[in-house]
Amino acid sequence: MSPSPGNSSPALLSVETLQSFCAGDAAAFNLVHQAFDRRLFAYLRSQFPALSQQDVEDVLQDLWLEIFSSRQRFKPGSGHAGFSRWVHTIARQRSIDQTRRRSRQAVVTDPEQLTQQAVQGSSPQDSLQRTTELQQFRDCLQRLPPDWQRLITGKYFSEKSTAELATEENLPQNTVSSRLSRGKQQLQDCIRQKQHPQTPPGHSPS
User: Fold this and answer.
1) Three-state SS for 184?
2) pLDDT (tens digit, 9 = 90+) per residue, 149-188?
3) Final residue of a domain: which of 75, 105, 135?
4) 4 closest CA partner among 32, 35, 33, 41
5) Which domain holds residue 148?
6) 66 with 146, same domain?
7) The domain spanning residue 166 has which CATH number?
8) How confident is the model over 81-119, as pLDDT tens digits?
């Protein structure tokens, strides 16, 4: 667990301490950890607010393992400032990796997102995920009443306005808006159930 924000700022690390750290000295590692753990935690939280606190803790734990395992790549002669730049560069890259990984794993249930995303992703895994999501969307769409299906497909596939849909269906605009909202919610619940069968309807997976 990271130190609490109330701790005082540690002293600058000496070149000798950094040399010992690079040589694998445990006491020097403790000094480095004390000097940077809270700062790295705060950096991750401020630069990547989309990550939860637990995600930040997980990234930070992996980060320290990487810092220690790659310590011989650091040049101790650059001193405290050089070490700070080095560890923050690693922290930023690991956070980007974490964000991308969570994005790939995220369940997409919003019809607007589904229809705006290309089926071809940046990798075969992304392409497969998008194809699967669209198939789930189509399956769930078939469970809606026919008039709701027309409204959903008109809105999210044909990009028609609420006014245009109201005219086509001979309905008040507020009725169209209400059915779109309810239909969208039912679609999201249906897709979540397909992705997470153990999750009760209306609840987000943990």
Assistant:
1) helix
2) 888 888 877 778 888 889 999 988 888 888 888 888 888 8
3) 105
4) 41
5) 111-195
6) no
7) 1.10.10.10
8) 999 999 988 888 877 776 666 554 444 555 555 554 444
Cα separation, 50 vs 99, in Å, equals: 8
- The amino acid at residue 132 is T
Domains: count for the chain: 2
Same domain for 144 and 75?
A: no
Query: Do 140 and 165 sit in the same domain of this protein?
Result: yes
Contact, 100 vs 81, CB < 8 A? no
| The last residue of a domain, from among 71, 105, 139 | 105
